[in-house]
Amino acid sequence: MIDLIEITPELFPRLERFNTAFPNEERDASFWNRRFQHWWLDNPARSPGRPMGWALLDPTAGVVGFVANIALLFQWEGSLVPAATASTWRVLPAFRTQSFRLMMQLFRTEKQSILFGSTPNTTTAPLLVRSGFSPLPRVSTTRQMFVLTADQAKHSIITNYLQKRKWTLPETERPGFPNLHPILDFNQHPACSLFPVFEVGQEMDRFWEKTASLFANTFVRSAEAIHWYSFVNPYYRKQLIYILAKDRLIGYFLGKMSPKTNLTIFRIVDFWFDPDALAYIPTALANLVQLARCHHADLILFPTLPAPLSHAVAACQSVTVEDSTPLGFYRVEWDFSKKMVAADSYISDLHGDSEI
Questions:
Q1: Which CATH number does the domain housing residue 213 bear?
Q2: Three-state SS at 63
Q3: Domain for residue 92, yes or no?
Q4: How far apart are CA 169 and CA 144, in angstroms?
Q5: Which has the closest alpha carbon to 350: 218, 239, 232, 212?
Q6: What digits encode the pLDDT tens for the residues 154-182?
Q7: Residue 80's Cα: distance from chain center in Å?
Q8: What are the b/e assignments for 138-165, b being 16+ CB within 10 Å?
Q9: Which of 97, 222, 319, 346 is deepest in the core (most CB within 10 A)?
């Protein structure tokens, strides 16, 4: 008899061993211990008593399956609502017939929430669709990037990187890239500065209050939410860069330097901006390119952006990449018929569990 049990902190050591030993897993027990603490004990979105997730327990084999339930702060139709993402849905091959018990328990528990499945694979994605999940809306089928190197060998590596993700380049950018970066006359654009920060204060709460109404459906960008996402887990630490004009916060870049084999990518996971300050974007991007070069980045890669930001970035000599791959899936538990409308939604790379 295989038992379905709710996760408690006392179960963490057994879950660490299960995940560390899972087929093709390369991360160690300390990684999983810190991740569990970040997901559940440090998470500002998780209320006391909210289930952390569930495990399948075999009397002989021990833990044979697992799914995490990670609480999120999400704004739906302009109001804060309960939200969660499923993560690390894993069951040992010999026990795969028990897999769906984990997700059914998640569905029952989070019936008043919006549920996200942000990193499905080819096996789990069809299961989510059959369970009433819908693809997350895309505000665009493009991404913007800046290529910061003139090295033709690295251009080939970048092209292979894009192809692996099934992202395509316009014909005008094939087979290589020019050495692209914004070359701007600063006298023609209002001045702003970038300021890396390591603690998030009330200035972020004020900025979020001013800009929260930009999109009806999006992840909350309060000070506690951004701090938790950016700095709490040392394995997934981000760089938070304020954009300041006349000592006023007008936007931010949230990114992570991701060294790959022979390629360093500065990946922007979120770009949030005051719509009243769009004129500052060219200078902000020029400063971002300079900062990325100081860190020896070969490429700056943006998430899918809403139209005003996408157009502003594209106007600064960026490369446009076609990306129609799914962002993930969601289900409104209290009303399956409810759908997000792309024009009212901004789903950046903040929504996924891969960076927490």
A1: 3.40.630.30
A2: strand
A3: yes
A4: 11
A5: 218
A6: 988 998 999 898 898 876 555 456 544 44
A7: 19
A8: bbbebbbbbbbbeeeebbebbbebbeee
A9: 346
